Inverse folding.
């Protein structure tokens, strides 16, 4: 019965997000017309646990401004589920570009974003991804890709710097736990190199499937190397598996997850095994008292919803959409990808009301920030333990 109920909930979420994100072009009745932004989302694939609330947050932001004119235009988000499959992302991209005539895209995964970046560059379509791959910082290879949060590699570097500054008792020993996807592997070599630069000892690395339900064998192998810290590059599901199996095995390594491993959705999955877990925080938790949270709260209340029913990944999607719209507001020509790119490159220390670190983009740098915070699970809730830090 529990399984049937879970499947039903997935279908409800998918239907809700797709109904909200898709639709035909609507006449604004005034102004200059409608600018369309595409959405390539993972609702039902390997990272759908975090992808669904991210997509809901992006859709919610566009819905919150549907009655406004932005730089003289109405804005519309046209999104769909690609189920974390690169060929599906490529098909969807072609539809968004050729049929829907979008002027920019909110994308998702590392593998698909990297696979699309040459087409994105050729088509001159600004692309904000849920992927924060270091490769996307290469402006020569990815001139139309923008990172709206610290890259995975920068997240790992900052976490390792924090370890270096706070560790006591000899040389820190580090392990890495990640999945065998472009997303999972993205920061690993950079992080290993940086750990060695800091004088740390990298003692182990283990590959654990992104949807793993058991990580016992990998953790037993890791335990033989006795690492002080293990950096996790996963989403909630596999991270919960790691934490539960580590608790069962009595492993006392300190686990530190990068941003997609972190968030409220981890806690019910991991239970008390989540206690003491430290996560990289790129975006605010809904329960933080921050100026930027007010507009989200007001929007949700207008729909009969509550902020406390949302999670950090919802905030993450909201912020990504907001940054795109802020660029459209100041673009000289917001109807073209090239025009929106120039608008993005005008954003300087964009204040996001505490929802995320301020972002700055220039013609030479499309990485908006390298700052993160860290949070620790205490009493079944993430508590932020640092201000914004970088390496």
């Amino acid at each position: 019965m529990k399984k049937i109920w879970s499947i039903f909930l997935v279908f409800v979420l998918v239907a809700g997000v797709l109904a909200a994100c898709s639709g035909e072009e609507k006449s604004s009745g005034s102004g200059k017309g409608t600018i369309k932004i595409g959405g390539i989302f993972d609702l039902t694939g390997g990272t759908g646990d975090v992808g669904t609330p991210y997509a809901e947050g992006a859709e919610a932001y566009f819905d919150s401004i549907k009655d406004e004119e932005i730089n003289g235009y109405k804005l519309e988000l046209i999104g769909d589920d690609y189920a974390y499959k690169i060929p599906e992302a490529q098909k969807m991209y072609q539809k968004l570009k050729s049929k829907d005539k979008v002027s920019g895209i909110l994308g998702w995964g590392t593998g698909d974003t990297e696979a699309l970046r040459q087409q994105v560059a050729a088509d001159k379509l600004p692309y904000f991804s849920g992927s924060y791959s270091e490769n996307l910082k290469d402006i020569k290879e990815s001139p139309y890709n923008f990172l709206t949060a610290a890259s995975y590699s920068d997240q790992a570097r900052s976490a390792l710097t924090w370890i270096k500054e706070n560790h006591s008792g000899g040389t820190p020993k580090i392990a890495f736990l990640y999945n065998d996807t472009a997303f999972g592997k993205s920061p690993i070599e950079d992080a290993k190199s940086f750990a060695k630069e800091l004088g740390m000892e990298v003692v182990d690395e283990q590959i654990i499937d992104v949807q793993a339900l058991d990580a016992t064998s990998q953790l037993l192998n890791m335990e033989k190397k006795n690492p002080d810290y293990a950096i996790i590059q996963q989403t909630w599901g596999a991270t919960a598996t790691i934490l539960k199996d580590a608790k069962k095995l009595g492993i006392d390594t300190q686990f530190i997850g990068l941003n997609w491993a972190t968030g409220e959705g981890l806690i019910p999955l991991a239970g008390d095994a989540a206690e003491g877990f430290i996560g990289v925080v790129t975006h605010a938790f809904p329960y933080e008292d921050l100026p930027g949270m007010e507009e989200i709260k007001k929007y949700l209340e207008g729909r009969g919803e509550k902020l406390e029913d949302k999670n950090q990944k919802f905030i993450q999607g909201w912020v990504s959409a907001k940054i795109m719209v802020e660029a459209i507001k100041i673009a000289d020509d917001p109807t073209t990808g090239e025009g929106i790119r120039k608008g993005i490159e005008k954003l300087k220390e964009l204040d996001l009301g505490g929802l995320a670190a301020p972002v700055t983009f220039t013609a030479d740098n499309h990485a908006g920030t390298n700052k993160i915070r860290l949070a620790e699970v205490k009493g079944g809730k993430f508590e932020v333990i640092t201000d914004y830090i970088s390496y």
About this structure: The first strand starts at residue 34 and ends at 41. Residues 2-21 form the longest helix (20 residues). The radius of gyration is 20 Å. The domain at 2-149+288-344 is CATH 3.40.50.2300 (Rossmann fold).
